[in-house]
Amino acid sequence: MELDQFSSTALNLREILVGYGSTQEDVFQGKEGFSGMELLGSVEDEKGTKLFEDEDHKQLQEPQVDKLLEEFNYDHDMQLKPTPQFDETTWPGKHDLESAEYNNHVPPSLSSLELLRNYRSRFKRISEQNITKPSLDHHQISTEEIMRVAGARYVQYSAHWNDSFCIPMHPYGLDFGGLSEEENRDVELVQFLLAAAERVGCYQFERASRLLLHCQRNSSPNNASPVQRVIFHFAEALRERIDKGLGRTTTKGSDKNEERGLIQKIDTNVALTCHQNIPFNQVMQFTGIQTIVEHVASETKIHVIDLETISGVHNTVLMQALTERQDCKVQLLKITALALDSCRSMIEETGKRLASFAESLNLPFSYNAVFVTDFAEIREDDFEIGEGEAVAVYSPYFLRCMVSRPECMENLMRVIWNMKPVIMIVLEVEANHNSPFFVNRFIEALFFYSAFFDCLGTCIKDENECRRKIEAVLSEGIRDIVAMEGRERKVRNVKIDVWRRFFARYRMVETGFSESSLYQAHLVNKEFAFGKFCTVEKNGKCLLVGWKGTPIHSISAWRFL
């Protein structure tokens, strides 16, 4: 019975890896088989039954592969029906956020197979680029490409793994033509990690532990290659998951979002180093601010609602743009920041810096901060919208923190709707880390964080202390995605296609970015030493900002009907 279970789960993981060989368009169009409301749904169903728990997975019957792949597609015929009247019972999205149908989700094995299949063409592309052939003019390939080569090799030769040994001895050999000796070792190490994850997925914890031991002995969070650093953090997260599964630890996840907490504690020097050397933030900030400026071009009183900003750097860009107006002078720029009480000192310091900057520009300015102990407490009156003020909402990575709390999301959307903003700019992480199934989340996270670690290793490789602090934050995200289940999971990133489905239920309309905004994005990108690796691509009306072709962030603009 155990062997049958392992064979089924193993097949699923390999299917997912095969999926990581498809075209870039296929991979990042959100084809995970869940509707937007399911992905944003509550972690409990309407009857209060907990979802996404390991014991629930054990009860699932594995369907046939063809059935799985059929269920794995989005329901494209689903009609989004905006509700004409908003009240406590008919607020759009309310019931959807509370009614995730766990039994309709695709079992982990099937989903895994599909994910790997989606990447098949990428493996082909790697082969065409002579990565697997001898090359006299070798150049170092990226961290994510290493993962893809390893995934392709694992799918091809996984039958050679023999669990009767404590650790398989070099099952694929060390010499992959065209790769350096270090890259060959990294590829092999990734295969050990994949084998461990596969066994964790089918609850073979002791076998997984033996494989992880090899990973942990050959990786490090410090003086190591980006691949080895990624493997270290994923191995640590897998180890914690195993310890929980074997009852070795009873530690429960915190009610707090630990990843967000670490981000808020990053010191100014680290934040400044990242801002000056990594293109992502500035590309999106200039694009978003340019769009706000265009939508308030004829307004003299402008009120920006800043959802949990920390440094407020983007507001200085807005101030400079507004002072350059010739035809319509600004009578008042009001910024209201929303934050938790725990961030009070940082937010107040940000307000003082912004006020000083506005004074230097001779710009009429007002700053207010709304502090709450819980985001469920947000009320419209807190923002003090004045008569004649044009409201713009700037949401940098804020909504992702509410995916696991639909009641907070609903309340926030109600408040924003009532403020009638002329534009809402949304910055989010472009990844699917909200699957109810462990193996799906693991593979998605592995490729996503590989690209991110590669970016850090390239852009701030000489700033080791800064890089370590940023990677510590990313490590907490990895831990949350891999080691946690159910309500313990706070990191629930979803892709832009899911946000589109969600926003449509609140009668929000996506608006495209102007040529001027796009020009700003590309102009800023060129200013960075490694800007050529930062990719800015259109996805419908939004922009996807990534690293070497792998989307990392999305920025979109929305109006309310």
From TrEMBL:
Region span, Leucine repeat II (LRII): 349-381
Q: Which InterPro entries match?
A: TF_GRAS
**Coiled-coil intervals:** none
According to the lineage, what is the superkingdom? Eukaryota
Positions of the UniProt region annotated as SAW: 483-559
Main location per UniProt? Answer: nucleus
Which Gene Ontology cellular component terms are annotated? nucleus
Q: Name one Pfam family in it.
A: GRAS
Cite the entry's keywords alphabetically: Nucleus, Transcription, Transcription regulation
Which segment of this protein is annotated as the motif VHIID? 302-306
Localization of this protein = Nucleus
Q: Which family does it belong to?
A: Belongs to the GRAS family.
Name this polypeptide is given: DELLA protein
Question: Lineage of the native species?
Answer: Eukaryota, Viridiplantae, Streptophyta, Embryophyta, Tracheophyta
